[in-house]
Amino acid sequence: MEVPEPSAEMGQKFQAMLEEAKKARFLEDRSPVRRLSPFFELRPTLLPRLAAALSLIVVGWFLGYQVTPRPERARIDFLVSEVREMKTTVMLAMLENSSATERMKAVQFAQELSGPDEAVLTALARTVNDDPNVNVCLMAVEALAVYADHPKVREALVQAIVRQESPLVQLALVEVMLALNEKRAVEPIRKIIASPLVDYSVKSKLEATVRQLL
Amino acid sequence: MLLGVVAVALGGLATAQESQPQQIVVPLTRPDKPGRLILERHQGSISVKGYEGTVVLIKAFLRRSTGTAPSDRDAEGLKPVSSAAIQLDAHEVDNVVTVDAHSRNKSIDLDISVPARFALKLGVLDDGDVIVDGLTGDVEVNNPYGRVRLDRLTGSANVNTVDGDISVRFLGVDTGVPLAFTSVHGKIDVSFLPRR
After folding, report:
1. Residue A148 CB coordination number (10 Å)
2. In this structure, are A81 and A141 located in the same domain?
């Protein structure tokens, strides 16, 4: 077999190829990410895409969560309204209790009900007018005063003034009227002042209130 | 299980019994359970004491005429008909004792002993003070013109006066129960006795 003679250039060529290979190896070593697969390649455009995809997933899940009618959710809503209703019923029953302490508890209870409905407010207004215990009346006035923005409550408080015989409740109602700057209260207050039963010390306070309201 | 006990004591002859107190004893349906005494629209003083017994003892004394005896000249020669008679009713249903004591024109002072675990609901219209001592329970007093004194009380209280002073000494209070004391012209003094 004939073996060709190695030419003179062979050494140079080999050297050049060796250099090339070394260079390539060197470059490969320095590159930070190994080219395992094109999916893992960190191109500058990939990050925002990923973020967009993720946010879409989150938004979709959230919307789905909100939109899907779930039985347990309806049940919780139902239970919440049920508990409210029960609390209201208990509170209304407690207001009929013959013990003043129990009735005071009922008024406290009513204050804790967030945004009480009309039945509760009506019951409180009735308590202000009719409860035989002055302390319970005072508490009911306090409880109602919180909802004085409600036109019916305001009306009930104005109406209650004339019906009060206890000087303390009269004073409490008049103070609420003053705080609300309720001019409609002037007539009822004048009626109390004119009454022969009015307490002498309350009278001066009432007169002062009338002057302030006008 | 309802058991009503009604006891009516009527003073007979005015002259003979004027100074005699009326007394009735009211047993309870369930002596081992706390009871409640209701006495409203009373004219005269009320004193209630807690004691070791199991029945309610009520004594009624006619107030000695305090200068305002009806001595009309027009009425001279006319004798008031049993003006001194005390009508004392007590009525018990399921440990709730309702008492009513009245007499024409005169105030009646009541001296009542109840088992220590008793709640009270007392209302005085006029002419009397309320004194309560040594009870465990809820005490509610409404006495517009007189004084109210609650001593050695355990439980809760709801007191209202217009002119009279209020003095309350607690041995202990129930938690989570509203206490209320109001007065228009009177002084209010609430204190807690040190536990021994």
Report:
1. 16
2. yes
Q: Does A54 reside within a domain?
A: no
The boundaries of the domain holding residue A197 are 148-214
- For residue A103, what is the nearest residue in chain B, using CA coordinates? B178
Touching A: B residues 118-147, CB under 8 Å: 119, 121, 138, 140, 142
Q: List CB contacts of B163: < 8 A, sequence separation 6 or more.
A: B144, B145, B146, B183, B184, B185, B186
pLDDT tens per residue across span A9-46: 888 888 899 999 998 888 877 665 555 555 555 667 78
The verdict on A173 and A129 lying in the same domain is no
| Model pLDDT for residues A163-191, shown as the tens digit of each residue | 888 889 999 999 999 999 988 999 999 99
Query: Both A153 and A191 in a single domain?
Result: yes
A139 in contact with B at a CB cutoff of 8 Å?
yes
pTM: 0.73
A vs B, Cβ pairs < 8 A, gives 50
- List, for residues B8-37, the tens digit of each pLDDT value: 444 433 333 455 789 999 999 999 999 999
A108 → chain B, closest CA residue: B178
Is there a contact between B140 and A138 if contact means CB atoms under 8 Å apart?
A: no
> Residue A49 domain-assigned?
no
ipTM higher than 0.85?
A: no
Instruction: Identify the closest residue of chain A to B144 by CA–CA distance.
Output: A166
Would you say residue A107 lies in a domain?
yes
